[in-house]
Design brief:
The complex is a heterodimer of chains A (about 210) and B (about 240). Chain A contains 6 helices and 5 strands, in the order H-H-H-E-H-E-H-E-H-E-E. In chain A, helix 2 runs antiparallel to helix 6 and helix 3 packs across helix 6. With about 210 residues, chain A is α/β, with parallel strands linked by helices. Chain B is elongated. Classes of the chains: A alpha/beta (about 210), B alpha/beta (about 240).
Chain lengths: ~210, ~240
């Protein structure tokens, strides 16, 4: 049973802090996100800049880039995901411990970006792993990455740990690992994980026609 | 303050190279081969004919503004020609800067068109693949010397002898051409795909390559991507 927010504020002014386990756990999780230390292309340069003193990602508790997926809980897919690299990215995601979150940074990680016409570029990492925050840009400025991080923090702060609408990682039936695509003769097999990704039904306006 | 004009800057600059290089200079101080100097391509070709008459080296002129003419070499004599160019002291082409490839599905165009248009490939075996080498002499600062070699066809006989034994820098570049064009470099010490995965069977830089169709959904399609995205769009059919 949730406490009345006004009562909580009153108590806080008297030096009594009232909270719930859910809020406490979400506060802890959102305040110390440890990103996995890897970059795929030019977006990684902006990601590195965001960690440095000028932009100071440490203000948001996310400065500890871990070189091992076992110690990380945030994957920042920073750059072009080639089809040759995609299985490794999925495998790294699978090796991360729950709870884990994904930021798709930049046009390439979202959709293939300027290289979506290429035979060798994956057209969005969301075809294989669930993406929590997508940051558009080519590449996004460090401020945009910080904004994405703040957005992720607010998403985590609202997560439900119990009940019907609980988060994926809090659900015993939830999926923690996603199938790693195989290298095929012409393309990855499968080309996308249809259980988590399906093309949205886009109705395009005909040229010169009405909507 | 107005910017000083370029000519006065050139006059005052103590390390200006203006006037020191021949008029047709190549990049980074390298003297180009097509000038009227003793290093001209014609005299080099004459010496090649004298030394290796069986190699059948022919001159291919480039009518474009680049005027970067090249020597067409029979693949069977490619290694002899390169060894001669490298080991003759007053030639000393000691550096293989670049290896690249061209797919010529229509052989009639190979000597007339600068670049074959996309999608005009016919899978007939009459075409061929071409490998292009850019040689420089670092000791004499001359180059590039452009060599071209053509395979017999685009199928089983798409073979060119490897130059790794002569120029070590050819190793990765030949692997890349093997990967993307499907030219088999005979004698290469480690001929594997370098960019695509090992299980991949296509050669993406060939004109008749068809890329996998993964255009089910594109957020902002345009041009060629829009055309491909339309195939997955029921309202466009």
């Amino acid at each position: 049973m949730a406490i009345d927010p006004k009562l909580a504020e009153d108590l806080k002014s008297q030096g009594v802090h009232v909270t719930s386990f859910e809020q406490l756990i979400n506060w802890g999780r959102s305040s110390s996100l440890w990103p996995l230390q890897f970059g795929l292309a030019c977006c990684a340069i902006e990601m590195i800049a965001a960690t440095m003193a000028k932009y100071d990602m440490a203000r948001f508790g996310a400065e500890v880039f871990r070189p091992s997926p076992r110690q990380a809980d945030l994957m920042i897919v920073a750059g072009t995901v080639t089809k040759k690299m995609a299985p490794q990215v999925v495998r790294l995601y699978n090796q991360m411990a729950e709870p884990k979150y994904v930021i798709a940074m930049g046009a390439c990680a979202i959709s293939g970006g300027p290289f979506k016409d290429g035979y060798n570029v994956l057209k969005g990492i969301d075809r294989f792993i669930p993406v929590d925050v997508a940051i558009p840009g080519c590449p996004p400025r460090p401020e945009a990455l910080l904004d994405g991080l703040i957005t992720l923090r607010s998403i985590i702060a609202k997560e439900k740990l119990m009940g019907k609408h609980r988060a994926r990682h809090a659900d015993p039936q939830g999926t923690a690992a996603f199938p790693v695509p195989e290298f095929g003769e012409h393309d990855l097999i499968p080309a996308a994980n249809r259980e988590i990704w399906n093309p949205p039904a886009v109705v395009r306006q005909a040229e010169g026609g009405e909507t | 303050m107005t910017a000083p004009d370029r000519n006065s800057m050139d006059r005052e600059s103590p390390d200006s190279h203006a006037g020191e290089l021949p008029s047709q200079s190549g990049e980074a101080g390298f003297t180009a081969l097509q000038s009227e100097s003793p290093d001209s391509l014609a005299s080099l070709l004459a010496r090649l004919h004298d030394a290796l008459p069986q190699a059948g080296v022919t001159l291919r002129t480039n009518p474009g503004p680049a005027a970067q003419h090249s020597l067409l070499v029979e693949p069977t004599h490619l290694t002899e020609v390169c060894r001669f160019l490298r080991d003759t002291p007053d030639m000393a082409f000691d550096f293989l800067s670049n290896v690249t490839g061209v797919d010529w599905p229509d052989p009639a165009k190979a000597d007339t068109v600068a670049v074959p248009a996309e999608g005009e490939a016919n899978a007939s075996a009459s075409g061929f693949l071409e490998v292009i080498y850019h040689l420089y002499s670092t000791t004499r600062r001359v180059g590039p010397l452009v060599l071209r070699a053509r395979t017999a066809d685009r199928g089983d006989n798409a073979k060119i002898p490897s130059l790794v034994a002569i120029y070590r820098s050819a190793e990765f570049q030949e692997r890349e051409i093997f990967d993307l064009f499907g030219v088999e470099f005979t004698g290469h010490p480690d001929l594997r795909r370098i960019l695509m995965w090992d299980e991949f069977t296509d050669h993406p830089m060939r004109k008749d390559y068809v890329a996998p169709d993964d255009y089910e959904y594109e957020p902002t399609p345009h041009d060629a991507v829009l055309e491909k995205a339309k195939r997955h769009d029921p309202s466009q059919q």
